[in-house]
Amino acid sequence: MSHQMADEAKSAPEIIARQLENNAERCQQIAAELQAIPPRTIMMIGRGTSDHAGVFAKYLFEVGCGVPVFAAAPSVAGVYKRTLKLEGCLAICISQSGQSPDIVQQAQLAKAGGARVLALVNVVDSPLGRLADDVLPLHAGPELAVAATKSYLASLSALCQLCAYWQKDHELLEGLSALPDALRQAQQLPPQLQAEQLQGLQHCVVLGRGFGYAIAREVALKLKEVLSIHAEAFSSAEFLHGPVTLVEKQLCIIDLQIDDEGGSTHEEQMKGIAARGAKLIHMHVPVMPHPRLQPLVLMQRFYLDIEQAARQMGLDPDAPPGLKKVTETR
Known about the structure:
The chain folds into two domains: about 5-170, Rossmann fold (3-Layer(aba) Sandwich); about 195-285, Rossmann fold, CATH 3.40.50. Helix 6 (about 125-130) links the parallel strand 4 (about 115-120) and strand 5 (about 135). About 50% of the residues lie in helices and about 15% in strands. The longest helix is centred in the first third of the chain and has 25 residues, at about 10-35. By secondary structure, it is α/β, with parallel strands linked by helices. It has a five-stranded parallel beta sheet. A four-stranded parallel beta sheet has the order 7-6-8-9, sandwiched between helices. This is Glutamine--fructose-6-phosphate aminotransferase. Pfam families: SIS. One of its GO terms (molecular function) is carbohydrate derivative binding. It comes from Pseudidiomarina halophila.
């Protein structure tokens, strides 16, 4: 029986080690240019898992660089054919395949509007790769499982490397050098998400704060894709502004704990939510090469857990029904 999703998730440490080495010089060059002419804003362009990497990038570049980051609405280009005024903007496009027509069109119009286009792609010789002003290859190799794993982790590590060189953040660079080993350690940890916790579950909420919320979006997507569970992601702070009333019905909540500046606040909020009657599933990894990298280590564990849970529940995580690898939207 194929185990593509598990095998690809397990390959992340080697992929990221290779990526960090091969991209170092190119990353330093792009970072030097960003230091010389800092962008006023950053536009993130992506769909699905790549869009979720963009949410991580928002926290990373706003906290680390002080530059406002916003998500593109691809329909503005694809449906409404509008070119935005983007002088002084860095447009970062993330795509495993580099082929989706609406992402390529959004990048074209961003470039026409004056933005500098940086592509993070797995397939360098793709329409998006050829269009971009700069390319950071993900070096993830062919991804055969429909649910993306290694390309998401490789996208986050590439963003972190760029941020570290741009801001001359030596602690983050040291953390990145330790990241492959941290991912290997996460693979050896006991599962935190069990099939028996998810069996029969139809609805759940995934909560995190800051960088934890960034990965919560990806966790919720995988619960939908792989297990057909309706899952929605919220910031734990935002959840208190109305949706918290859902916990009165013993709502299942997956709690993503990250030990950074927002960790203690998130933990207190989760205690209050649990006291209202929510059923909590906690996910936390003690392995932390750097606070900004702990989300990657947590996602490494999650990908292996959900793949195993799917098989125990009689599902095929490599080929969820109704999905295909490259989704071409316009």
